[in-house]
Amino acid sequence: MSEGTLYDKVWDRHKVTTLPTGQDQLFVGLHLIHEVTSPQAFGMLRERDLEVAYPELTHATVDHIVPTADQSRPYEEDAAEEMMAELEENVREAGIDFSDPTTGDQGIVHVIGPEQGLTQPGKTIVCGDSHTSTHGAFGALAFGIGTSQIRDVLATGTVAMEKQKVRKIQVDGELGDGVEAKDIILEIIRRLGTEGGVGYVYEYAGEAIESLGMEGRMSICNMSIEGGARAGYVNPDETTYEWLEETDYFQENPEKFEELKPYWESIRSDETAEYDDVVHIDANELEPVVTWGTTPGQGVGVTEPIPAPEDLPEDKQDTARRAQEHMRVEPGDTMEGYDIDVAFLGSCTNARLPDLRRAAEIVEGRQVDDDVRALVVPGSQRVQEAAKEEGLKDIFEEAGFEWRNAGCSMCLGMNEDQLEGDEASASSSNRNFVGRQGSKDGRTVLMNPQMVAAAAVTGEVSDVRDLKEVTAA
Amino acid sequence: MSREDERSESSERASGEERPASDAEVREIRTDGGDEVEIPEVTHVSGSGVPIRGNDIDTDQIIPARFMKVVTFDGLGEFAFFDVRFDDDDNPKDHPMNEDRFQDSSVMVVNSNFGCGSSREHAPQALMRWGIDAIIGESFAEIFAGNCLALGIPTVTADSETIQDLQDWVDENPDGEIDIDVEAEEVTYGDTTIDVTVDDAQRKALVEGVWDTTALMKSNAGEVRKKAAELPYVEDAAIPEAE
């Protein structure tokens, strides 16, 4: 078993007791809720005549169903309005802070937590959303839970968990131009598989991780779950502290910053920490990764050939065959040149300010291909506002992108933003499952945001490094 | 009481007779209006099987997101695996869950990494409301397995070959009884008994009837407050008074 890792330390600090099942009861330092997975949990509380135990450690937002075009109330879609109204009622009754769209603080739950300083090193953070792993970028122990567990957390402020193993993923070297955090995580999932992380928490370390800003670290931790790991984290460091110092919480409570820093330092993994497994990745070898299939593990370097199913491990062959049929790709071809109908720049993986900046650099002075509909969906109202101030909105709109309001949008197609028919999408999101983007015949190619920008302007999957050469020349 | 006692009550089908599905019927958790909750022990699950083949079956397949625009789990059963079961005009496609012979099945037999992706409890809720009481597979995604446990649904595992043999047997014996002995970690079908694995905590939780953890954890409220007070980042004002 691991020893002396951040995971071990944060676990021990939050363990209330061991339950009769052998699971540990863990105190939850931050419970984030949204409109899709929480209403049933509030319903269960009412059935049992229970109240929210720690409302001040709970924070709500609306993201999954929120329209990104017309947000006037009532929402055009009745079901969306009902879910929003239910959430409003639940948080009002329980006295839970709610970053609703009128506050200017609304956005995807995994974007707003870090923005507001709710996400902090050494906290246990849960949310009824698998991408809660995102918050691990700050050295928090953060993981997704189901609705019955949301009921547990609401009612008790705790969650029942089994301790997992820790795998250190050491990423050495330096990323090349056009290669990003997203490519690191897609490569990790490609190598270790979509279930390689089951039973593990991932610790991301090494110079390629440490040199990333918080947004890049979030992109990596975000997709831990796509590799089967329920949680992933990066040890907090100066980059983390610089971010925290600028957030609402520490701007309002500056004394807390110095007060908490020793705690943050104390939960970092020890130099002598023991891990259950260690994996090495060389960042120098990476190129932009794109997916050719229907799981996030089915990725390939943009200039590399798509693998033949028979060359894959036996248990991956069937899935690969079906995926290639669905995506209409041939082994031996590259993904470069794959026709795109939609470019989606958004999601909790890649819709933060630097993501939009890098994409805008590619888009500036170019036009979205005639056959492509392209949309930018900022991760939060704050990202939206900041991007607008910097002139990014203008750049995107002049190029022919639609500029939308914040939400999950086409990552999972729960609002009106969906693929139609067999449209192919270049997407900065996290899942390329069949049907994920709202159409069961839709085809999703995951990639980093610069690559999405490149696909938008060329109408096909393109190597963004080629476009950069043109820009430079 | 084991789950099979009420299996017939839990069936709810897209085609065939419609049964109103109230939470009490499908969840078997009884509340008395207070926080006293009766949680049944799940020691055995028996029933006929339905094979769902394929690795990496994600929760978007099990319950497409558009069916999650609801504020309760009622009625999700008919949407289980909807997009692989029905075409654009809602006509049934070739899928085991559409076949008459599997309509009374309550044990799903799946392959590896079943339930990967989104944390949506809507996925196991939909399967349970379709009539599934237990799932046997090569492996399960963690959040999915946890969500199943929270509903009292065992997720038991065996190796690839064993699972494929069982899937083939189910295909040939759609009415054949599969018995899962959760405590002994054995599955019996026909003349065959196989060893399976039930995660330790899951086994204890099911067998001892402590898989619904709310009341259990609430009984430690004093220790929870103490733990909260020890954490440097939790402000005193956030900690509730003792009841």
TrEMBL record, chain A:
Pathway connected to this protein: Amino-acid biosynthesis; L-leucine biosynthesis; L-leucine from 3-methyl-2-oxobutanoate: step 2/4
PANTHER family in the record, alphabetically?
A: 3-ISOPROPYLMALATE DEHYDRATASE, HOMOACONITASE, MITOCHONDRIAL-RELATED
Source superkingdom = Archaea
A Pfam family of the record is Aconitase
Q: What does this protein do?
A: Catalyzes the isomerization between 2-isopropylmalate and 3-isopropylmalate, via the formation of 2-isopropylmaleate.
Record keywords: Iron-sulfur included?
yes
The molecular function GO annotations come to: 3-isopropylmalate dehydratase activity; 4 iron, 4 sulfur cluster binding; isomerase activity; metal ion binding
The segment annotated Disordered runs over 421-444
KW RNA-binding (keyword) present: no
Instruction: Provide a GO biological process annotation.
Output: L-leucine biosynthetic process
Please list the reactions this protein catalyses: (2R,3S)-3-isopropylmalate = (2S)-2-isopropylmalate
Q: What is its EC number?
A: 4.2.1.33
The family database entries (Gene3D superfamilies) matched by this protein are listed as: Aconitase, domain 3
Question: Which keywords annotate this record?
Answer: 4Fe-4S, Amino-acid biosynthesis, Branched-chain amino acid biosynthesis, Iron, Iron-sulfur, Isomerase, Leucine biosynthesis, Lyase, Metal-binding
Name this polypeptide is given: 3-isopropylmalate dehydratase
From TrEMBL, chain B:
Matching entries from PANTHER family are given as: 3-ISOPROPYLMALATE DEHYDRATASE SMALL SUBUNIT, 3-ISOPROPYLMALATE DEHYDRATASE SMALL SUBUNIT 2-RELATED-RELATED
Function in brief: Catalyzes the isomerization between 2-isopropylmalate and 3-isopropylmalate, via the formation of 2-isopropylmaleate.
Q: Name one GO cellular component term.
A: 3-isopropylmalate dehydratase complex
Query: SUPFAM superfamilies attached here?
Result: LeuD/IlvD-like
Give the record's subunit note: Heterodimer of LeuC and LeuD.
Quote the catalytic activity from the record: (2R,3S)-3-isopropylmalate = (2S)-2-isopropylmalate
Instruction: Write out the similarity annotation.
Output: Belongs to the LeuD family. LeuD type 2 subfamily. Belongs to the LeuD family. LeuD type 1 subfamily.
TM helices/strands, residue ranges: none
**A GO biological process held by the record:** L-leucine biosynthetic process
Q: What's the source species for this entry?
A: Haloterrigena salina JCM 13891
Quote the protein name from its UniProt record.
Answer: 3-isopropylmalate dehydratase
Protein EC: 4.2.1.33
Region entry Disordered, spans: 1-36
Please report the stretch or stretches of sequence annotated as the Aconitase A/isopropylmalate dehydratase small subunit swivel domain: 42-157
Which Pfam family, just one, is annotated for this protein?
A: Aconitase_C
Q: Which domain of life is it from?
A: Archaea
Cytoplasm among keywords = no
| Pathway where this protein functions | Amino-acid biosynthesis; L-leucine biosynthesis; L-leucine from 3-methyl-2-oxobutanoate: step 2/4
Spell out the InterPro entries in the cross-references: 3-IsopropMal_deHydase_ssu (IPR004431), Aconitase/3IPM_dehydase_swvl (IPR015928), AconitaseA/IPMdHydase_ssu_swvl (IPR000573), IPMI_Swivel (IPR033940), LeuD (IPR050075)
Renumbered to this chain, the Basic and acidic residues biased-composition regions fall at 1-33
- Write out the entry's keywords from A to Z: Amino-acid biosynthesis, Branched-chain amino acid biosynthesis, Leucine biosynthesis, Lyase
The yes or no answer to whether the keyword Hydrolase is present is no
Looking up NCBIfam families in the UniProt record yields: leuD, PRK01641.1
Query: What GO annotations for molecular function exist for this entry?
Result: 3-isopropylmalate dehydratase activity
